[in-house]
């Protein structure tokens, strides 16, 4: 839900900036949603690289090379997030992010089933970790909507 809050906040700030300063390309909701997705994926990717050990618990024990997988996912989030901002590769970056989100979904299921704390020090309450699963499709639809 923190990711969704970031998407909404950045998207709405972009839209507001467009209207306040009369910037035509920021007055387009779909473009603002794209900017928000790019920024959030880049930030999350940086977090994966800055504190990878805080995320390995989500896959340790059922996938090998947990640390390397966290680092790879961080690099991919940064590259693909930045790719959303480049028109020539935007569609490929979006599909890459959609595939990455689907690949990460089992880790979120693992956290919920095993009643582990959510990443980033977010609540470990079952209602929160299970509710995070409902948002994964929202993020996938968000990215898809940005490129259609």
Number of strands: 0
The low-pLDDT segments are none
Overall average residue pLDDT: 94
Residues in helices, as a percent range: over 70%
The 3D shape can be described as globular
N to C succession of SSEs: HHHHH
Instruction: Give me the secondary-structure category.
Output: mainly alpha
How big a fraction of the residues is strand?
under 5%
Major sheet, described briefly?
none
- How far the N terminus sits from the C terminus, by CA atoms, comes to 24 Å
Number of helices: 5
User: What count of domains describes the coordinates?
Assistant: 1
Q: What is the rounded Rg?
A: 16 Å
Helix-strand blueprint:
Blueprint: H1 2-20, H2 29-50, H3 66-83, H4 90-113, H5 126-147
Helix pairs in contact: 1-2, 2-3, 2-5, 3-4, 4-5
Structural commentary:
Helix 1 (2-20) crosses helix 2, helix 2 (29-50) packs antiparallel against helix 3 (66-83) and helix 3 (66-83) runs antiparallel to helix 4 (90-113). This protein is 71% helix and 0% strand. It has helices spanning 2-20, 29-50, 66-83, 90-113, 126-147. The protein has 148 residues and is mainly α.
């Amino acid at each position: 839900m923190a990711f969704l809050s970031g998407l909404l906040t950045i998207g709405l700030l972009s839209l507001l900036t467009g209207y306040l300063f009369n910037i035509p390309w920021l007055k387009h909701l779909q473009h603002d949603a794209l900017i928000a997705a790019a920024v959030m994926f880049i930030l999350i990717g940086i977090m994966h690289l800055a504190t990878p050990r805080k995320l390995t618990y989500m896959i340790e024990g059922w996938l090998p090379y947990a640390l390397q997988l966290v680092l790879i996912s961080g690099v991919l989030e940064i590259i693909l997030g930045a790719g959303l901002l480049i028109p020539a590769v935007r569609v490929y970056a979006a599909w890459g992010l959609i595939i990455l989100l689907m690949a990460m979904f089992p880790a979120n299921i693992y956290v919920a089933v095993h009643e582990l704390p959510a990443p980033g020090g977010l609540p470990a309450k079952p209602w929160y970790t299970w509710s995070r699963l409902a948002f994964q499709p929202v993020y996938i639809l968000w990215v898809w909507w940005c490129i259609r």
